[in-house]
């Protein structure tokens, strides 16, 4: 028990599920619950029993619609014609005539006496009144005009949205406190009671109509069972309705025509209403937009069928919520892998949704779904949040423990992959950089130890920033030297390009620092940088007592040799042919083809100039001329090579590479190379 009390995520999950009980009881999120209800009802219409979902055969809609008014050639319907409809429906055998047309103002044409007489003579009519509610509280009932109210029974319509944000009608509410009031029963309830010849009563949360007992939910709400419609029909009035035009005048009907109309209305509840577009009497429901008169007909049908949709009792919902809670907590405690934890929560959520949908479709049971699903999702997120915080703390601990002596990039990869620090490595194609300060010994001799430390920090800090900015990893600092690499610990397909960009930026950064160094009384620093690309072994290497994340291999050694040769060619930056080949679009000056000390395989060396589009035409022409001269030099055409290189040296007298080749040509004229000379220069020093 002590362990559970320390798990704030589990305690909050329990609290969420407990809060879900009053939340669904008082319908705090009615709009969202209605969305799940709409989905379930669509499933019911698609996969439920069509016979039980059809509208009750005792209910029929007689409507005035667009075709009616087109033939009627007037708007609105005159009350004398409403009187004719009532009289004719009574004559054809309608058992109850429910008129869904609000008439709370006297007729401008003095038609009320005619309609009142028709209503009184029929004796089986009910007029619609209007229930006025504010914030769910009853205010008053707006009755029909006094003359009509005395001639007919009336009842109010009160179907209201469960949400204050969106008007969605799905349930009919019975207000116990209004039942003693005149016309205090909902219109659909009064119509059904008149049809059954009884007085409606409330027995707790059960609507009693004689022998018919209709269960309501804990708030005395009846779920309206919107019926399935035949294929190709959108509205109930198209399948369970008939135009009022058929009943305006039945005096000239023959026996067959009269019998056909009697078939529609005899011994039925006839709901007379307006389904024309101009009336705007339509509302959003779980099955889409439905006309008001059709909602009344569906409500009457739901009552007569004994409420096919029944809400589960609140305690049942609470038990279901707690069961899901128990499964969620067990899942959280038993499963450690995030993916399995997610799949488990998903399985519970999908399973519960499927169960609630199946109960709705097959048994007509309305289980609160959104509240439990929300609690499940929030509980899962809480548990995942705690796991995230635990892992974050672990990562911070790793960073604190190892970050002092291994690169931050390695710490990040360890945190991401969860791998442990072990001796060993892997082979990757990478690019390595070596950088060294020219004449560092001379510089250090003129400075006090403390000032030398300040100088080195002023040099190493910006160089490190540049390397990190271009995704490089610092391997080590070796006095004034820097070793770095690209392509590990994180894979980088553009490692060579990033290394080139970093090296070129390091050179320009040192030029920018020149004035700062002079202002502080220091000599300007020049660096030599060498790069090589190849397969290297990278990883945590060392002993059981100390490890370092570093790179090893021939490609690394070649990078170090290349850096040491930069001063012999008078350049700040030099790369191997392998790095050159790995960076498409890189413009470089070929410097030499050499064998470095300890290597038999020759390698071409280049000085990067820039990228395509960044190098001016004059420089490109000089590069082309130099490369031509080098070709002549390797072909031992000394005079032609000397002429080209001398011309370049005249244009750029400070570039050392021209002097290097002019000296070699002079030497080879006096001492020609071997017959099988391949044009490669062999360096005897590192």
Automatic annotation (TrEMBL):
Domain Guanylate cyclase: 431-563
Stretches that traverse the bilayer: 315-335, 342-359, 365-383
Any one biological process term the GO annotation gives: cAMP biosynthetic process
Main location: other
GO-annotated molecular function: adenylate cyclase activity
PROSITE patterns (UniProt xref): GUANYLATE_CYCLASE_2
InterPro entries tied to this protein: A/G_cyclase, Adenylyl/Guanylyl_Cyclase_3/4, CHASE2, Nucleotide_cyclase
Superkingdom of the source species: Bacteria
Alphabetically ordered keywords of this record: Cell membrane, Membrane, Transmembrane, Transmembrane helix
Cell location: Cell envelope
Coiled-coil stretches noted in the UniProt entry, renumbered to this chain: none
A GO cellular-component term linked to this record: cell envelope
Similarity comment: family membership: Belongs to the adenylyl cyclase class-3 family.
PANTHER family: ADENYLATE CYCLASE, TERMINAL-DIFFERENTIATION SPECIFIC (PTHR43081:SF1), ADENYLATE CYCLASE, TERMINAL-DIFFERENTIATION SPECIFIC-RELATED (PTHR43081)
Record-given protein name: Adenylate cyclase
């Amino acid at each position: 028990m002590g362990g559970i009390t320390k798990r704030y995520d589990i305690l909050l999950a329990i609290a969420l599920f407990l809060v879900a009980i009053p939340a669904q009881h008082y319908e705090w999120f009615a709009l969202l619950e209605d969305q799940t209800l709409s989905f379930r009802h669509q499933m019911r219409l698609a996969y439920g029993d069509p016979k039980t979902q059809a509208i009750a055969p005792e209910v029929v809609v007689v409507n005035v619609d667009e075709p009616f008014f087109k033939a009627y050639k007037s708007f609105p319907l005159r009350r004398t014609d409403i009187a004719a409809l009532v009289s004719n429906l009574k004559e054809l055998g309608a058992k109850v005539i429910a008129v869904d047309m609000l008439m709370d103002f006297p007729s401008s044409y003095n038609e009320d006496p005619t309609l009142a007489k028709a209503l009184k003579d029929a004796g089986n009519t009910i007029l619609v009144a209007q229930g006025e509610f504010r914030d769910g509280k009853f205010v008053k009932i707006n009755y029909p005009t006094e003359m009509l109210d005395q001639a007919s029974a009336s009842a109010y319509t009160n179907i209201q949205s469960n949400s204050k944000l969106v008007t969605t009608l799905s349930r009919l509410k019975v207000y116990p406190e209004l039942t003693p009031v005149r016309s205090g029963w909902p219109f659909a309830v009064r119509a059904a009671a008149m049809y059954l010849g009884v007085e409606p009563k409330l027995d707790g949360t059960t609507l009693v109509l004689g022998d018919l007992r209709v269960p309501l939910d804990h708030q005395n709400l009846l779920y309206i069972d919107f019926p399935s419609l035949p294929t190709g029909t959108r509205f109930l009035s198209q399948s369970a309705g008939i135009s009022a035009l058929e009943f305006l005048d039945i005096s000239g009907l023959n026996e067959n025509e009269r019998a056909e109309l009697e078939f529609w209305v005899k011994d039925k509840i006839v709901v007379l209403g307006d389904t024309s577009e101009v009336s705007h009497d339509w509302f959003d429901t779980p099955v889409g937009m439905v006309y008001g008169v059709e909602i009344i007909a569906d409500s009457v049908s739901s009552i007569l069928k004994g409420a096919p949709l029944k809400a589960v009792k609140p305690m049942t919902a609470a038990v279901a919520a707690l069961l899901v809670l128990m499964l969620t907590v067990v899942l959280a405690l038993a499963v450690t892998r995030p993916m399995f934890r997610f799949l488990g929560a998903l399985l519970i959520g999908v399973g519960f949704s499927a169960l609630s949908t199946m109960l709705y479709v097959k048994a007509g049971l309305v289980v609160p779904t959104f509240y439990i699903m929300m609690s499940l999702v929030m509980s899962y997120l809480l548990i995942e949040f705690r796991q995230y915080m635990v892992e974050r703390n672990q990562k911070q601990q790793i960073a604190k423990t190892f970050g002092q002596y291994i690169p931050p990039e390695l710490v990040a990869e360890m945190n991401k992959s969860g791998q442990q620090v072990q001796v060993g490595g892997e082979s990757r194609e990478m690019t390595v950089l070596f950088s060294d300060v020219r004449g560092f010994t001379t510089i250090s001799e003129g400075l006090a130890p403390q000032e030398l430390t300040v100088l080195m920090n002023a040099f190493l800090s910006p160089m490190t920033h540049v390397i990190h900015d271009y995704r490089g990893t610092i391997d080590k600092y070796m006095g004034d030297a820097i070793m770095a690499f690209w392509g590990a610990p994180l894979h980088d397909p553009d490692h060579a390009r990033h290394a080139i960009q970093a090296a070129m930026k390091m050179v320009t950064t040192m030029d920018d620092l020149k004035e700062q160094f002079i202002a502080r009384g220091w000599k300007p620093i020049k660096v030599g940088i060498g790069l090589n690309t190849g397969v290297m072994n990278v990883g945590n290497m060392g002993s059981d007592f100390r490890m370092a994340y570093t790179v090893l291999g021939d490609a690394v050694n070649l990078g170090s040799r290349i850096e040491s040769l930069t001063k012999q060619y008078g350049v700040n930056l030099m790369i191997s042919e392998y790095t050159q080949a790995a960076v498409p679009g890189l413009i470089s000056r070929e410097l030499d083809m050499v064998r470095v000390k300890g290597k038999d395989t020759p390698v071409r060396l280049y000085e990067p100039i820039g990228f395509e589009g960044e190098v001016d035409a004059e420089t490109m022409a000089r590069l082309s001329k130099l490369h031509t001269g080098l070709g002549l030099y390797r072909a031992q055409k000394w005079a032609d090579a000397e002429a080209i290189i001398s011309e370049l040296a005249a244009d750029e007298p400070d570039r050392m590479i021209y002097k290097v080749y002019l000296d070699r040509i002079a030497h080879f004229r006096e001492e020609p190379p071997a017959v099988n000379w391949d044009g490669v220069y062999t360096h005897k020093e590192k």
